[in-house]
Amino acid sequence: MGCDIHMFAEFGEGSGAFTALSDGEFLLPRQYGLFAALAGVRAEPGFVPLQRPRGIPSDVSQHVADRYFVPVLEDERARAWGLADHFTPSHAARLVASGASRWKPDGTTTPLMPTTHGHIAHPDWHSASWLAVDEIRPALEHARFNLDAASDEFVLLLDYVSAVAVKKGPSTRVVFWFDN
Predict the structure, then answer these.
(1) Residues forming beta bridges with residue 129, ordered by sequence position
(2) Strands, E, within the chain: which ranges?
(3) Is 81 helix (H, G, I), strand (E, B) or coil?
(4) 3-state secondary structure the chain
(5) Which of 63, 84, 87, 166 is most buried, judged by most C-beta within 10 A?
């Protein structure tokens, strides 16, 4: 089974809040060498990434929180609100009890999606992390991942977030996770 990355770019506001540069993810092709460099995902045995996965940042932007977390509410309420993706309270409890998911931590940005019983992390997502723009190149160098081997999409994203950091500051970052 393949593994894909879900990557988003954010920049910090003066207030400490983060804003997503897009309300959608950047579509990057499968490149396991890159995945290993960023978070140790699909790495060779014994490889330790420069930065182990940190989880979703508590100050994540609402748009990114909206993609990572799934609302928990009754089926009837979900239909009334027009929500397709959701978990019922009993299903969410089973997912959390089995270790397949976890509740949104207290203090983490609340997603835009409405809910009556909170939010859980999507059960198919794993190894969530983030890197500040100035941590990306060192992570690649540590893994000996040559940027010349990177996909054009990733190189363009790196150039983009680097340019945003010049304007918005060093709190510019990428937030990402992987699927099964």
Answers:
(1) 176
(2) 5-12, 18-20, 69-71, 119-121, 125-132, 173-179
(3) helix
(4) CCCCEEEEEEEECCCCCEEECCCCCECCCCCHHHHHHHHCCCCCCCCCCCCCCCCCCCCCCHHHHHHHEEEECCHHHHHHHCCCCCECHHHHHHHHHHCCCCECCCCCCCCCCCCCCCEEECCCEEEEEEEEHHHHHHHHHHCCCCHHHCCHHHHHHHHHHHHHHHHHCCCCEEEEEEEC
(5) 87
Closest CA to 131 of 121, 122, 140, 144: 140
122-167 pLDDT, tens digit per residue, is 999 999 999 999 999 999 999 999 999 999 999 999 999 999 999 9
CB 73 within 8 A of CB 83: yes
Q: How much is the pLDDT for 73?
A: 95
Q: 126: Cβ–Cβ under 8 A, 6 or more apart, which residues?
A: 177, 178, 179, 180
State the pTM of this model: 0.93
Contacts (Cβ under 8 Å, ≥6 apart) of 101: 92, 95, 120, 121, 122, 123
Q: Which of 108, 168, 162 has its CA nearest to residue 131?
A: 162
